[in-house]
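Researcher: Please translate sequence to structure tokens.
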Amino acid sequence: MKKPLRNWALSPKRAMSLKHKDQRVVVLLDVQNMYHSAKNIYKARVNFKEVLKTAVAGRHLIRAIGYVIRTESGEERSFFEALEKIGIELKIKDLQIFPGGMKKADWDVGLTIDAVRLAELVVDAIVLVTGDGDFVPLTEYLKGKGRQVEVAAFDKSASSRLKEAADDFIDLGSDIKRFTIPI
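Model: Translation complete:
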């Protein structure tokens, strides 16, 4: 008896997104999200050089932008320089401290606006390096504009809705030695 062919269109598992060397890719890195995920889950720092290399996957990189927060102490200066050295353009925002001590360090709107603007350019794929579920509507919007949307994050801290919404999910937790640096 012959086995029936599997109907891939109806498969509950989505196929991995197609990646080829001629694709033009933009990588947007939610640095704070990734930093805190690696620190809290693995007691380590993120190896952003390897993350960027994996996100690009041999394709034509148009831009890599990292969204970072500057503190009053400025202790992160050498970290920012290291990110720039590996080819990540930085968008820097000062940490907001409100009366009463509450702190806010959020780049969600800035990253979203950049993604929407960059999607209007000649870009085939946008890689969001974040596990933040707030980016689900952005992912859906970009896909609606015909862009391939990939997410790279640590599976243990990534939103399941974001992983499902993306065309492809790259689990940085699958190779801890490669994607993290011990503290």
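Researcher: Any highlights?
Model: Residues 1-15 have pLDDT under 50 and may be disordered.
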